[in-house]
Amino acid sequence: MFCCKDQLGRDVVLNSYPAKRIISLVPSQTELLYDLGLDEEVVGITKFCVHPVHWFRNKERVGGTKNVNIEKVESLQADLILANKEENMKEQIEQLEKIAPVWISDVTTFEDALQMIKNVSEITNTMEKALTLITRITTNFSKLSHRVLHPTSNTQHPTSNVQLRTAYLIWHNPYMTIGGDTFISNMLSKCGLKNVFENLKRYPEISIEQIASVNPQLILLSSEPYPFKEKHVEELRPFFDKAKIFLVDGEMFSWYGSRMVYAPDYFASLMQNIENN
Fold first, then answer.
1. What is the CATH number of the domain that holds 117?
2. Are 79 and 117 within one domain?
3. How many domains does the chain have?
């Protein structure tokens, strides 16, 4: 028996340690489990767990993040279920707790993400790999911070990238953005960008008029959960002729876990592209 606390401060008791049959209901944490070397241990994932691709194709799927197939989960005889406060439904988590221990993550900052990696490695006995991963992540973000504070571009823009007022959109019809209490907003700050809706909570609906009222210099259209395309950029241009509008990889901004290793290089490239256009 092994007792630990999840990121909600709840006591989670595993009847066997380390966990040998794991179901992940969180796409970014599914990828983390793969990078921690837990191939055989992971017995179930969601239909949104697209990384790694061979897991997506071959692992048993237990529905979506918000519509978990409870009977399928029960049939897999898991000894640990990984869930997330934001991505999964409370009512379903309560049902799942009757089947197996449920460890719930709650990630809104860079530091929360690193703590989540440590916690997951503790309950899966993969701490050595996790510490190596955390070192890579922190090193890469330190390099990004240096680039943000010491840009090398000679572009004579009246406002440097570190001050760009940014609206980050995650949904269309209605438009939705991200508040200041989200992991995405924290990642924007790592890029040196200012979330113009940081005073709001979670993922509010907004209108074009509301976006215009905060006068963004930059509008980022995410690839997830809504897959924004170039046609949506053109749709917004008539309303924001002075703002730069870019499509961005939502996974880099919202996936906490091992994908964070690659995010700093992506952010640096994005910022360079923004400055040059």
1. 3.40.50.1980
2. yes
3. 2
pLDDT at 209 over 90: yes
Q: How many residues are recorded in the chain?
A: 277
Report whether 179 contacts 200 (CB < 8 A).
Answer: yes
Q: Is residue 212 part of a domain?
A: yes
Scan for tokens 């995010």, then name that residue.
263
Expressed as residue numbers, the domain containing 125 is 2-130
> How many CB atoms within 10 Å of residue 79?
18
Which position has the token pair 């005073």? 199
pTM for this structure?
0.92
Q: What is the pLDDT of residues 92-144, one digit of tens each?
A: 999 999 999 999 999 999 999 999 999 999 999 999 999 999 999 999 999 99
Helix (H) or strand (E) holding 219: strand 218-222
Does 165 map to a domain?
Answer: yes
Instruction: Let me know: does 144 contact 268? Beta carbons within 8 Å.
Output: yes
Distance, in Å, from the CA atom of 212 to the CA atom of 28, rounded to the nearest integer, reads 33
